[in-house]
Amino acid sequence: MNRSTLAKSYKSLLPYFLSLIISLPAFSQVTAPAPSGTQAPASSGNQGNSQSGAPRGTGNAPSGTGNQQGGNQQGGNQPGGNQQGGNQQGGNQQGNNQQQGEGQGNDKGKNAANQNGQNAEGDQGKVNKNTTSTLSPEEQEKEAFRKKIYGYSIFADKNMDLIPDLQIATPTNFIVGPGDELKIYLYNYAESTYETVVNKDGFISIPRVGNVLVAGRTIEEIRKILIDKFAKFVPGMIGSGGETAKTKLMVTLGDIRSIKVFVSGEVVNPGTYTVSSLSSAFNALYQAGGPNEIGSFRDVRVVRQGKVVAHMDIYDYLTNGKIDGDLRVQENDNVVVGYYLKRAEITGMIKRPGIYELKPEEKLGDMIRYSGGFSDKAYRARLKIQRITSKERKILDVAEADYDSFEVATGDSINVETVLDRYENIVTIEGAVMRPGEYSLDNSPSLKKLIENAQGLREDAFVGRLNVLRTREDLTIQNIPINFTDVLNGVTPDLILTRLDQIIVPSKFEMAETAFVSVEGEVNNTKVGENEGKFPYTVDMTLEDVLVQAGGLKESAYTSEIEVVRRKRNSVAGAANAQISEVYKFNVNRDLSLNSKATNFVLFPFDQVIVRKSPNYVEQQTVFVEGEVLVTGPYTIVNKNDKISDIIKRAGGLTELAYPEGATLLRRTIVKNLEEPTDFNQIEATERSIKQGTIVGDLPNVKEEKIGIVLKNILKNPGSFEDLVVQEGDIIRIPKRLETVQVTGSVLYPTTVKYGKGMSFTDYISQSGGFTVQSLKKSSYIKYPNGNIDRTRRFLFFNVYPKVEPGSEIFVPLRAAPVLNTQQTISTATTLLSSIMGLIVTVLAFRSLK
């Protein structure tokens, strides 16, 4: 075989090899061994005795020798056993599932307990887990309907554990059967212990006593039988001479047997269940998932040997915590759940909305009690019931008095509505009373009684005119004025109130304008942003009193002439020269003390106090010098007419690197907007920032001006017209010698060019690449370092460009596209179309000549 043939063979085997690699994970899952001690293999042959719907276990309990009966075992992922709902489970195993070891015994009771727990986690878990997204829409709708049925929740709740506890005292009425382990104790005078198991025939074997039939008998009956048996050879078993027996006998259960119970009818998971012999019929019903959507919760029957031995009402357990007829099941008992006979739904303002099943003799009142009663905001006076007849629907109204006698039909839908959002006996009082608010008309039938219940009128109440707003039957509002003084004096009869009456007691203060006194000028009003200089007026307030409230006088106050401006309240109407105000001037002490020199001038409401600034008082004012001077920093203005040259002289003059042509004066002033309210705190902060020379940023109330100055001329001719008088907060900036020129705007390459002596405007444009096609040359301008701007001028057809100095900035604007009006647009379009048509005609003419 050559290499080519070998390669072809390998090529044909390659797909099979890849398939084998892909399938390896699946083989590993199939052949994985089950964990030891947790899953038992499914039994085969006659041992598989599994019923449909039977519960599943999780393992084998240890078994002793003899007759043994294992629990239902869950097969897990292993094949074998009958399948239900996709879950594989093994059958009930009997016989040879034995586990050898020291202390072997018959552990059927523990096995039964494990089976009960397994059943609860098996089928019941399946009921709870079926409400997932894997269910079909019909199944999801059915499960949602089951949750509305009252009582279904206890069977669907996985947290409820209704499996009987085996660690309890032995019930005296427990009926013994084959497989039960009995422990017999003799104590006191004679002592002995016996442990025996009931065999298949129902007998126990005791040394010296022999076989005793115990199957079908209770623990108490067995104890009495054994006392008679042991009395033959054990002394003191029976008392004599009025004395009690000296030897006592006690019978207890050891390991208990497991029994099979049938749960049939309308349950979620009908089938055969293996439970402990201590289990009741309700325990078996719980393992079967409870009644389904058409099953009855009110009549669950326990059938034994073809006869009904008990009836259970699950509602009795839900409401009272007990169930009459919940007897202990025996082997082959059948728990039967039939169809419901009468069921209705109640919704709305009820404590527990849902679907409730009623017995034939129960009425609507019983259904309301089952649902927990009405909620707090329920409308109880009448219920609306929708009923389905043999032909159509029908609505019924039931009054509250007929709830206990009204017959509910199956399929009825009862809706409990909410109460109206209104009051049947409310009256309201507001205004100048001690306790305004809402009151009951029953306890306050009249106006006088209502005011008395409201703890009376306040001192500021205006009793001469009370307003009563009455709502008529057509919901219109009627105003009833009342003089309450006449009511108190018996002149006018007391007003009888009606529902929704609203009484308004006006206040004297609300009827009068709020009086104040304003203080302006040089006072230490720290809360000027809050009170805006206005202070509440009080009777007998003097000028010194309001100045104290304003924080006292500032140092700059002109105390010898404080003005009080008062409204003229009795001026001559219509006169052109009528006096509208009066002005009083006072000389007030700075300490505002009460002494013989005090003015004691009593103020009136709305008086205006003006404290002016002293004419000979001026605060220190500062100017800032930055840049190329000998000593930079703040300088105080000495004289009111100090100029730029004076400040520069005090700063030591210019340095050798100073560029006086670029010197600027930065001046900032506060702008007040008369249309907007004044923010005193912001103005104070801005003034402080200007005085300190700090940057305040872009504030709307600050106007910043950059004034171009010719410092060289100022220093050459101090006091000339170019030498400006400085103001507080001015900043004089003198830059260092500049050696560049910046070119921006519509040039080919905007850049910064080194300054050259003798270079013109166009030279700098050329070094920036020159003008562009869209450059607007005639509008070019230059900005000098000191802030001055010079434009390009026009002479005949030539542009005269400005002179360039070091540190200047040249700007060339962009030519804007012309905006055409309608007539120009039509003219341009017509010309363009004419040109196109002429071109087309020319081409056609040449083609025709050819």
Question: Secondary-structure map with pairings?
Answer:
Layout: H1 3-30, E1 69-76, E2 83-84, E3 87-94, H2 108-129, H3 137-148, H4 152-156, E4 181-188, E5 192-197, E6 203-206, E7 210-213, H5 219-230, E8 247-253, E9 258-265, E10 271-276, H6 281-287, E11 295-304, E12 307-312, H7 314-320, E13 333-339, E14 343-348, E15 354-357, H8 364-370, E16 382-388, E17 393-399, E18 413-416, E19 426-431, E20 437-440, H9 447-453, E21 466-471, E22 477-482, H10 484-489, E23 502-505, E24 516-521, H11 528-531, E25 534-536, H12 543-549, E26 562-567, E27 581-586, E28 608-611, E29 622-627, E30 633-636, H13 644-650, E31 664-670, H14 680-692, E32 702-708, H15 711-716, E33 731-734, E34 740-745, E35 751-754, H16 761-767, E36 781-783, E37 789-791, E38 793-795, E39 798-800, E40 809-812, H17 822-849
Parallel strand pairs: 9-13, 14-18, 19-23, 24-28, 29-33, 34-40
Antiparallel strand pairs: 1-3, 2-3, 4-5, 4-8, 6-7, 9-10, 11-12, 11-13, 14-15, 16-17, 16-18, 19-20, 21-22, 21-23, 24-25, 26-27, 26-28, 29-30, 31-32, 31-33, 34-35, 36-37, 36-40, 38-39
Structural class: alpha+beta
Major sheet: arrangement of strands: 10-9-13-11-12
C-alpha termini separation: 82 Å
Largest sheet: 5 strands, mixed
Using only CA atoms, what is the Rg? 55 Å
Average pLDDT rating: 80
Q: How many helical elements?
A: 17
Q: Please estimate the helix content.
A: 10-25%
Estimated share of beta-strand residues? 25-35%
Principal-axis shape equals elongated
* Uncertain stretches of 5 or more adjacent residues: 23-132
Strand segment count: 40
